Amino acid sequence: MTAYISTNLRPNEKILLKTKQIASQLNLPLIERGKRSIASLQQETMSEILIIGKERMELYPYGSLVPIFFHPSSAMFRIKRLERGEPDPFIDVSLLSKGDSILDCTLGLGSDSLVAAYQVGEMGTVLGIEENQLLFFLVKEGFKSWLTEYIPLQQALRRVRAENASYLTYLSQLPSKSFDCVYFDPMFDSTIEEAEVMRNWEKAAQFSELGQSAIEQAVRVAKKRVVLKAHYRSPLFKELGFTQIVRRSAKFHFGFIDIKDVK
């Protein structure tokens, strides 16, 4: 499906120029907004739309009028908890420490990658893979441009590297033992009905079906652990050989494969 680039309803010359530059950079068609609604643009293009505005970029998945835009989300309060010495389930299961490296195969909006970037510090490495071109671009630009007075988060934002690729393809091209941890967050194998943002996100996220081939590659690439985040009822934990960590009242659980235990 071809994606399109457009503007907000009242673009000034600066926004028009920026929109043309982004369309050219991404090699995607630009559609003039005029006075048309997002629904009208979607009906005409039958596609997802990236809207360039004065304050932010907004991604409208096809069939949804709820925008996705970059925001550090939970990363800020999670980093603050870590600073206070409190636990973070993702950090605990990934065994990340200063100077470590992690490959986030399902970057999304990057909250987990940002927390990982704080944890591994200046000498560590965090690389996120996102298959959806527009989502990747939105998040990559967000990492570069988001400003906050909270220095630990600001530093984390600048540390995360992002690549637009299929994680299976990317994993298969990496040397063995390239990263301390390889992480998957497919998220949508079981929908959380009450979360509108999750249903909307599912329309945009392009997750290759997580299967044994990807896990085999991840085990080859990881030095310490392969980590999975999924709905607590997900069959993936058992099917793919993960040890599931049960968290009471949590809708998502983590699972792990210890590389030292793999024969």
UniProtKB/TrEMBL annotation:
Pfam families according to UniProt: SAM_MT (PF04445)
InterPro entries xrefs: 16SrRNA_methylTrfase_J (IPR007536), SAM-dependent_MTases_sf (IPR029063)
Keywords per UniProt: Methyltransferase, Transferase
GO MF annotation terms: rRNA (guanine-N2-)-methyltransferase activity
Record keyword Methyltransferase present: yes
Protein name: Putative SAM-dependent methyltransferase
Gene3D superfamilies referenced in this protein's UniProt entry, alphabetically: Vaccinia Virus protein VP39
